[in-house]
Amino acid sequence: MSTVGQPERATQNRVIALFRDELGYRYLGDWSDRTGFDGKGNSNVEEGLLTDFLSKNGYSSAQISRTLDRLRTEAGNPNRSLYDNNKAIYSLLRFGVQVQAAAGENNETINLINWDDPAQNDFAIAEEVTLHGNTKRRPDLVLYVNGIAVAVIELKNSRISIGDGIRQNISNQQPEFNEWFFSTVQLIFAGNDSEGLQYGAIKTAEKYFLKWKEDEEDNSHFKLDKYLLKLCNKARLIELMHDFVLFDGGVKKLPRAHQYFGIKAAQDYIHRREGGIIWHTQGSGKSIVMVLLAKWILENKPNARVVIVTDRDELDKQIEGVFIAAGHTMTRANSGRDLMTQLGQAKPRLLCSLVHKFGKRGVEDFEQFIKELEAQPCRTVGEIFVFVDECHRTQSGKLHRTMKALMPNAVFIGFTGTPLLKQDKATSLETFGGYIHTYKFSEAVEDEVILDLVYEARDIDQHLGSQDKIDAWFEVKTKALNDWQKAALREQWGTMQKVLSSRSRMDRVVEDIIFDFSVKPRLNNARGNAILVAASIYEACKYFEQFQKTVFKGKCAVVTSYNPQAQDITLEDTGANTETDRQFIYNTYTALLKNVEALPGKSKTETYEDNAKKLFKEQPANMKLLVVVDKLLTGFDAPSCTYLYIDKSMQDHGLFQAICRTNRLDGEDKDYGYIVDYKDLFKKVENAIAVYTSELDHSAGGADPEIMLQDRLTKGRERLDNALEAVALLCEPVAPPKGELEHIHYFCGNTEIPDDLKAHEPQRAALYKATVALVRAYANITDELVKAGYSDAEIKRINQRLDQYLKLREIIRNASGENLDLKAYEADMRHLIDTYIEADEPRKISPFDDMPLLELIVKTGIANAINSLPNGLKGNKDAVAETIENNVRSKIIKEHLNDPAFYDKMSALLNELIDERKAKAIEYEEYLKKIAELANKVGAGQNADTPQTLNTPGRRALYNNLKQNEELAIKIDETIKRTRPDGWRGIQTREQVIKAALYGVLQNVDEVERIFLIIKAQNEY
Known about the structure:
By secondary structure, the protein is an alpha/beta fold. The chain has 38 helices and 25 strands.
């Protein structure tokens, strides 16, 4: 028998066997109906298993009892978030529990996990672990170490998206489900046989779930099995938990594969006291590697000191912020003298400094200065490990030699995200040593760690109206000057043409950027924003001034190294009624800082820029554009940044780092980082643009270091062709004659079977997602289809197919009751569709004007509702009937928890009506009348004969679920409203207050639990 398309159960059985037979885990059994050691059901701390482990390790019963009590308290603290509870539990796992066995005795550390010898721990796996929380849920597999739940695995069959398993894990962590269980969980997995395995931590959003990569040539297993064997190997699992978990300012993080292997490689170098270079491309998480490696060094080397050295104040602050957010106190050196003083003492163990603070001003004979330092180096305490960030920028400089002379015994580790040039190679090896680990641009794009880059050169023609008039003007204005002065002035200004043409050119750039914001994906829906790189502070201020006269006013900021000081303009007044460049810069900054209140420890400029950067990252709709010169082009990570406009001559490392501001992941609608080049910085190669060519250092081996930029139109055509083919392939299995009804059956299933709609959800999800991708691909080059190489006939065919697929999507959405797309990737596409697809003949995309079909029936009647259906549906009675039935069923399912008794009756009536229609025992007109009556009942949420005293949804729900006992329903309603505490949902102690009040009326524990769920579902309580 074929195993193709095997059910989830078969996958689960195989995975359990994998853990039992190959990984050596104990199988605890199927825990779907288990009462648990304490009789209260399954727990994240199985106290019997943990007690056995602690007893075997020599702890007394009193110590164990206090340990369990502490664990329970920390794991279920109702006054903290899941993140804080999880962080508290992790601390106990990592460092042990401090307990006092008896009054007057010293505290002793009770170790919950044997970190030194993984094999001495008890590894176990249970399946179908039913969680009895607010709502019952059942994770497929749970991994326990010494009875503590440390990992959860959700499995899907190969036909169901791995995303379903991820979303199931995420919803399980909600307060209304089983948030409590995840306070001990360190890793969360989702997988299937077709896509493999993804992993994350608690509260990891779906788009940030990671994929592992190791031994790619090994193809002997399903990828799911292969990477479970890698990550859940006993020693690897213990190591990941011990050395690679990071709590970073409210976000729990786990390493990507390249970060793990980079740190592992560095650990070997550290043990040998060797330096080297870690080359991890921009955007791949270098700061996390620094934090985890520094943490490992400080824990494993008792005398170690770590110094983080950067060459820019912005980076210095950023790295300090990352360490502090991760809970590691860092000391910043304020000066060179301060740094030397700090290094001469035993503490602090973790410092950061600017590389310039190692320098000495006014040194005439540098070689002699170095010799003197080498003869009398700085006295440093401990083993010094120096991390040099962006090491390519200063590795060949005098400051590095100074640093090495001051600390001759230190181990230097360089970090770079940029390809090294051949000319740097010799000094790199001399300063740091060889490559410790590399993770290059092409690898990161392939692994979907960063986005690929799309390049577009834009030329703005400039010409002068009258060269003669300009020369005449120049002669008049400089009449009083001698020939030498005139020549000097001409040389400085470039015969004034530069000045006169630059203003109009800047106008064109401003207009060009504003146009992009009105038509380009992400820019025009406020999900993305952009950075403009200007050639100088003067030009940046000019650009800023220009944008303030447009729709960007209040949504644009200038971020440079300038801080206005009165002495800047002391000698600038020429007596004329015009501003010099310096006056213009000073006046611009003075005006924009006028109403800024400086925050403690910051200047007005720093306060203004920090606020602008925060808005840019967190609220792209309110900070659309940053105009910069040098700042923010390194070390500034803003996922919202989608476009980089370059109007400055740049090269080499600086250029590459700048363009990588746009390549951070930011949801499904960000496909690429876009580079718009006004300076013709790149030379076009056949199908790509190379940042560097023969000047790259290839000695690291592995993937090529070239950074390939895709030509926008070439890539745009490829995306559109692929998107059209993807939708066509999705529709290929539809049965002949491939009409509306056949498409509805394929994508929606049989409306008579409630579970059938759910079963066909993967097909619909794939259709919705593929249609979104098609709309994006079309929108990206819609105005340039001819430039992209399409003929008129091809363009006509593309438009027809696009229209056909959009209509199909609307039909399927309406037929399935999913009038508003529920998928995250669909949320912000309506604006793009309206703008691009139907620009010539605007009309609403949704025939219901965003009103659900049921609401339309209730408000306008069945005839008008049917008339509002798409043309493809109206003529087919069966299709109309199935569409209405699906919408009614969808409403019943959605509202069932609010009023189970009422909606059970409605569901039964719907089933009867469907049976009658299918048996042709009812004419179409009669059917429409009855389905309209049912739709009205379902839409209203009540029967027509409901007593008038039941005048709220909550009262009606109680009435229907208390055998229509009007008096009892009103009594419970009044009792709840009188006794309910504020913010009671999800807080156990407050929920108990309501349950106690309910018990006073119902006198039955089971009835209290049943009615409590209905009360919890009502918004009015």
